[in-house]
Each structure stands twice: as structure tokens, then as C-alpha cells.
Design a protein that fits this description.
This protein is an all-alpha fold and about 350 residues long. The protein has a domain of about 100 residues. The strands form two sheets. Strands 1-2 form a two-stranded antiparallel sheet. The chain has a two-stranded parallel sheet with strand order 3-4. Strand 3, helix 10 and strand 4 form a beta-alpha-beta unit. The longest helix has 17 residues. The radius of gyration is 23 Å and the shape is elongated. About 0% of the residues have low confidence.
């Protein structure tokens, strides 16, 4: 009887002697002491092994996670270990395998558990914000995952603080042209997708996390073609707007609070119609199709306003997709990913 081989996303790597000592010693004080007293040859061997014990220290700090965040003492010890790694010349971009097949990275783990001081220290040390693990999860993706919530429908105050850190430092942009002209690793596209072709905005729609949806829409996020097709192909939803409409109405209500002074409010009852204020819910392929239809409309000499105000609201989001069940476009992945096959 033949045994089934276990699938791997990366080849098996041999840990260095210094890395084994750090992993076998559970105390953070012992790990910090071992790193400080390590020789130059041991540090070179640790960097050459492509695996780092720093992820283990962050996971131990994550075990103290609560609804208010990790304990301050555990965060301080992690920051001390990271500072020791910086002083010794240990590469902070190295990771380690966890749960069998997944390759974890320190900054992704720190962002997932909203370790704000640790994330700041790693970014200041030169870790690129666009780096992604073996599943394509970036630190920006991880910052929106609340580990204390099983459904992912809420955000903690510490999660919002960690998310705001990326926007304050201008590490995330919604301008696609600006993103393509930047150096890989220096900036992150707000509509970046993981290996499963899921964006942060898509996750907020699936989990009905309206707080995340408002944050993303205010920062210029758009629903991608892949995510729209995934929502439409979901068997649980009879229409493509089943999950989009509640989010559209919630975001429109939040925008109405800011627009109440100018009296330019959005009709939440007609959120499924075309409106520039909620245009983030219309995929790019829909826009390209409407533009081509508009060009044909203008060639006949008909006024453009009639087409935009009377024809476009009748176009559903599903229009202009030839094969609705086939995802043909490549996902928008992060440009900086470690080579897991080395």
C-alpha cells in the first residue's frame, strides 16, 4: 500500500546550532543572552540557514494576547531581542516554518497580534512593509485580523492603532500608478491580494466587518474583479449584491455624517444603483465596459448625460463579465516575497 506524500510549500531547511539553542531555551532572557554572546561565525551560520528564532519569541509574546493587546512586559522583552538582533547583524527578514507547511515572518506575526512597538521597531530597522509569507499574507493583511474574535467581525482599539500606523507612515497607497513607480518593498497597494485572491476589503464583506470596510473605503480601496467574481459565485448568496448591499448602506450612512453639512447625502435605499460616492463596490472590469459603451453612445451623437444618469444605473455589477465562473486575471500579489524553495 503506497503512502501519500505530504505536500510542502518549501524545502526542508537545516537550523543552525545557534538557532537550535535559541529554540530549545524557552526563556526570552536566555535567548537574548545567547544572541549577545554569539560569535561572528555563529551569526553568519544563522543568517545562512534562512531561519530565525525571532518568530518563536514573537509567538511566545502572542500567548499573552488579550482584548487590550499583548502584555507590556512581553512586548518589552521582544523589543530587547529585536534590538539585540540589530546590534549583532542578524537578518530580521528571516522566518521559520509553523503548522507544518506555512512559512511565517516576524513582521507578519507582530502585525497579526497588533504588537505596535515591535512593528515600529521592525519597520525602522528596514524590514520592507510589502513582504509576504508563504500564503501571500502581508503585514497589512494581518493587522486587520483580530485574534481575540473567532469570526473576524470586530476590531480592537489596538488593532486600529496598528492599522493607522501603516497609513501614518504612508506605507499603503490607493494610487495604482504611484505604486507601480515605487521601489518594490517601499510601498504597498491597498488592493493587494493574498494567494487565495482575497483583499482586506473582501474579508470585511465576507465577515460583515463594517468597521474595516469604512476604514478601507475612506482610504480609497476598491473591489477587485477577482473578489467580485468570488462573491458572485458564492452559492450562499442568490444575488451578487447580497453581501455588498449591507456594506454599501453602512459606508454610505457613515459618509452621510460627513456630508450632512453640504446636504449632498447618499440615498441608502438605492445603494445598488450607480453612484460615484459608493463606486468602490463596482469592479474595474465594469468601469471599462461602461466606458466602451459610452464611447459607442457618443459616436451616435447622443448626449452623454442621458447615458450616465438614465442608462448606467440600470447596469448591474455582473454586466461585462463574459465568463462569470472563471477567474482569468492574475492576482495582485505583493512584489516582495522570500524565496521559500532555497
Amino acid at each position: 500500500m503506497s503512502t501519500r506524500k505530504r505536500r510542502r510549500l518549501h524545502t526542508r531547511r537545516k537550523q543552525s546550532p545557534l538557532g537550535l539553542l535559541c529554540l530549545n531555551n524557552s526563556s526570552k532572557f536566555q535567548m537574548s543572552f545567547l544572541l549577545k554572546t554569539a560569535s561572528t561565525h555563529e551569526i553568519v551560520a544563522l543568517n545562512a540557514s534562512k531561519t530565525s528564532p525571532l518568530c518563536q519569541a514573537l509567538l511566545r509574546c502572542a500567548s499573552t494576547n488579550t482584548k487590550k493587546g499583548c502584555k507590556p512586559r512581553a512586548l518589552m522583552l521582544c523589543c530587547n531581542i529585536i534590538q539585540t538582533c540589530i546590534d549583532c547583524g542578524i537578518d530580521l527578514s528571516l522566518g521559520m516554518p509553523i503548522t507544518g507547511q506555512r512559512w511565517a515572518l516576524p513582521i507578519v506575526i507582530a502585525a497579526r497580534f497588533s504588537m505596535v512597538p515591535v512593528v515600529k521597531l521592525l519597520l525602522d530597522a528596514g524590514v520592507p512593509p510589502e513582504v509576504a509569507d508563504s500564503e501571500g499574507i502581508t503585514p497589512f493583511h494581518s493587522a486587520f485580523s483580530n485574534p481575540s474574535s473567532g469570526t473576524g467581525a470586530t476590531l480592537r482599539d489596538i488593532d486600529v492603532e496598528c492599522i493607522q500606523l501603516f497609513f501614518d507612515r504612508k506605507l499603503v497607497t490607493s494610487n495604482r500608478t504611484e505604486f507601480l513607480t515605487t521601489v518594490p518593498g517601499s510601498c504597498l497597494d491597498i488592493n493587494v491580494e493574498c494567494i487565495g485572491r482575497q483583499t482586506v476589503l473582501y474579508g470585511s464583506i465576507v465577515h460583515k466587518n463594517y468597521q474595516t470596510a469604512v476604514i478601507m473605503v475612506n482610504q480609497g480601496a476598491r473591489l477587485t474583479d477577482n473578489n467580485f467574481l468570488m462573491l458572485y459565485a458564492d452559492r450562499k448568496s442568490r444575488r451578487e449584491t447580497t453581501r455588498l448591499l449591507p456594506v454599501c448602506e453602512h459606508v454610505a450612512a457613515a459618509q452621510n455624517k460627513r456630508l450632512s453639512i453640504s446636504k449632498n447625502v447618499i440615498d441608502t435605499q438605492s445603494a445598488h444603483f450607480y453612484d460615484r460616492a459608493i463606486s468602490w463596490s463596482f469592479p474595474p472590469k465594469w468601469y471599462r465596459g461602461v466606458f466602451q459603451a459610452l464611447m459607442c453612445w457618443e459616436r451616435t451623437g447622443l448626449p452623454k448625460e442621458v447615458f450616465l444618469h438614465h442608462m448606467v444605473p440600470c447596469f448591474a455589477r455582473v454586466h461585462f463579465f463574459h465568463d462569470i465562473h472563471t477567474l482569468t486575471e492574475a492576482p495582485n500579489l505583493a512584489r516582495v516575497r522570500p524565496n521559500f524553495n532555497e
